[in-house]
Amino acid sequence: MARLDGTVAVVTGAASGIGAATAERLAAEGATVATMDITDGVHYALDVRDESAVRDAFADVVARHGRLDSVVHAAGVAGGGPVHMLDADEWDRVVDVNLKGTFLVDKYSAIHMLAQGSGSIINIASIEGIEGTEGGSAYNASKGGVVMLTKSMAIDYGRRGIRVNCICPGGIDTPLLRDITDAPGLEPYRERMRDEHLLGRFGRPEEIASVAAFLASQDASFITGHALVVDGGFTAGLRVGLLEQMGML
Fold this sequence. Notes:
By secondary structure, the chain is α/β, with parallel strands linked by helices.
């Protein structure tokens, strides 16, 4: 028996990357999965910044399937730069999609989960939500907000049977990452970023999906309010080349 048999899940950002891998994994674990993204090819094409669209989509999922057991919110965008060089419109775009979008998806997830007295909300944040990065500004701020929103919701809803956690991925080989690192002149940046992961590679979307499936399941029944770092060792600490000098690498 698959551990998500009989459950109903929603995955946002499900057209590609982490969202697509998560939708596939939850379905493989037995869940009925409703997919959402801004593009076609999903069950609900919507912009997570549009409150009425998010509200109506979640209401339709519950009307069709009778319940809502887990939500994995993976929709997001990249963007930022040094603050003095950043247009306010770009700041608004990144923060609105990444943070306001999380608020709206979580809001309508919580409304339906409160009615049934159970559920698991999983937000995809980032290691850039728990530590600063060069030129990160808007993206760092938005993902840091996702981490704090997750913790606040865990406090508010834990005694109502709703668990709220977030995953903080490192560099994951997705279209979003490639859009940033494949630009002309950024090849050395991509290599350096990859090498800063202690496992010597970027992660795969399936590796984040497996963590999301765990958090959605009863295997994680005593976990809430947690920002789970899944980063191949990126945030573990600093390498300075000592092992090379000792002949170990």
